[in-house]
Amino acid sequence: xxxxxxxxxxxxxxxxxxxxxxxxxxxxxxxxxxxxxxxxxxxxxxxxxxxxxxxxxxxxxxxxxxxxxxxxxxxxxxxxxxxxxxxxxxxxxxxxxxxxxxxxxxxxxxxxxxxxxxxxxxxxxxxxxxxxxxxxxxxxxxxxxxxxxxxxxxxxxxxxxxxxxxxxxxxxxxxxxxxxxxxxxxxxxxxxxxxxxxxxxxxxxxxxxxxxxxxxxxxxxxxxxxxxxxxxxxxxxxxxxxxxxxxxxxxxxxxxxxxxxxxxxxxxxxxxxxxxxxxxxxxxxxxxxxxxxxxxxxxxxxxxxxxxxxxxxxxxxxxxxxxxxxxxxxxxxxxxxxxxxxxxxxxxxxxxxxxxxxxxxxxxxxxxxxxxxxxxxxxxxxxxxxxxxxxxxxxxxxxxxxxxxxxxxxxxxxxxxxxxxxxxxxxxxxxxxxxxxxxxxxxxxxxxxxxx
Length: 452
Hints:
The protein is mainly alpha-helical. Helix content is 73%, strand content 0%. It has 21 helices and no strands. The chain crosses the membrane at residues 22-41, 53-78, 90-112, 164-182, 194-220, 240-258, 344-372, 392-415. Keywords: Cell membrane, Membrane, Symport, Transmembrane, Transmembrane helix, Transport. It comes from Paraburkholderia tropica.
């Protein structure tokens, strides 16, 4: 099977007007949303449906896109051993990098001490605000229950529930089935490729309203929480954003360097997606676009289809930074003593509970509540302190998650020798230039069939 970018010469495209650049449009939407929320808060708070509608459209398409990508990738390659090899390499990478994130998060928050001096009295704090998150924490399951939950009750329930890991599990098994029956699977593969082209056409159409979604989401956030809340906990925000920047600079940048690509150029290539997750605080809004861009960067479809969905479940780099920073901040703010031994115990608990974030609505706060309850050191009620700025914090950790997942997919593809370096260098050097999505993927499909 030919790799994307091999044997298919893209027709030259002229330089588009700057105002048609999606990154610029999303940035303009965010700026306008901030101004609307600040000057017209009563109007801005009613704009939440704009962002929510966009997220729902993307969520609607994620399951079918994973299914189509995994099936066409694995069945086309027809290599069962490769699937297990890729999965093991990806999981080892995820565990090492998320562990480094937790350690970095603990170190930075201990050095900068953003919560010291706040002297918060929990007796005067209403715990009702955190009750819903504590309730969700009970749904963060044990390791054995989590592994069992990977298997859906029915094939339909995996798609209906929107559980990425369950969809991936069924898709891999179905792809193996297609590969096992050989030539008889070709009509099904042709149908899957056609469905995939239609789904990505819908994504291309939906992305046209991304600036409007970012406008609505930012306007709602500023209207509801205002700048006063951000200023009162500004030290934590600055500390956390600095931690995310250090993680990208000290950990992801060397990983990219060792694997032969520029992290800065990669971030520019996915710039529209990074801005969109800042505006919506949702990583799901960019999942389909990342699949398409990673294939255009030269990553083999089967690797992208396995690694990226798994990364969305297990590779929460930014979220781990958030857990470490928020937990120790709450200890500092409430004058809860925490020795390094206590923090190492916290780190061990986080290594387990962070994996339980998958499939839990409002997962970050819920898992943080579960972690505090499990460590039995920091009062769970103290979470109320950060609820007002959680949206601003989530923009930072979702941004970092997306960068980390994109790097992880390219790295695993490189380790697996499933990376077209010519395409990678060409795309990163020229920057992303949109092409008709359906026709682009159709060309990839034809070249893939020709190479089988």
